[in-house]
Amino acid sequence: MKIYFQFMYILLFSIIGEVLSTGLNLPIPGSIIGMVLLFLALKFRIIRLRQIYDAGQFLIENMTILFLPAGVGIMSHWDAIAKYWWQIIVITVLAIVVNIAVIGFVTQFVKHRFEGDYRK
C-alpha cells in the first residue's frame, strides 16, 4: 500500500505540471514542469525523500520498459521520418558531443572550484 501512496505523490506532481503547461500554454512539457516542481518540493522539504523513494526506485529500475512505447511510435511512423534519417543522426551525434563537452566542463569547474586543483 505504501508504494501506491508514493506513486500517487509522483503522479500528483506530474498532473500539476500538465495542468500548468496546458493552462498557461507553455512550450515546456507538463512532465518536465512536474519533475521540476517535485525537485523543488524535495529541495525545500515540502515532501521528504522517504515519501517517494521506493516508487522512484521502481520507476528508475524499469526505465527501459517505459521508453518502449516511444520506440514503437518511431517505428510505426517510420515512413514519415525516413527521408530525414541522416539529419536526425547528425543532430543526435552533435547533441551527444555537446552534452559530453558541457558535462566535462561543468565537472572540471566544480572540481576546481569546490575541491581544489589536484594537478601534480
Automatic annotation (TrEMBL):
Gene Ontology CC terms, in alphabetical order: plasma membrane
Subcellular location, principal: membrane
Alphabetically ordered keywords of this record: Cell membrane, Membrane, Transmembrane, Transmembrane helix
Pfam families documented for this protein: LrgA
Transmembrane segments: 30-47, 59-78, 84-110
Membrane topology field: Multi-pass membrane protein
Subcellular location: Cell membrane
InterPro entries found in the cross-reference section: LrgA/CidA
Keyword Signal tagged: no
Signal peptide: none
Name by which UniProt lists this protein: CidA/LrgA family protein
Phylogenetic lineage: Bacteria, Bacillati, Bacillota, Bacilli, Lactobacillales
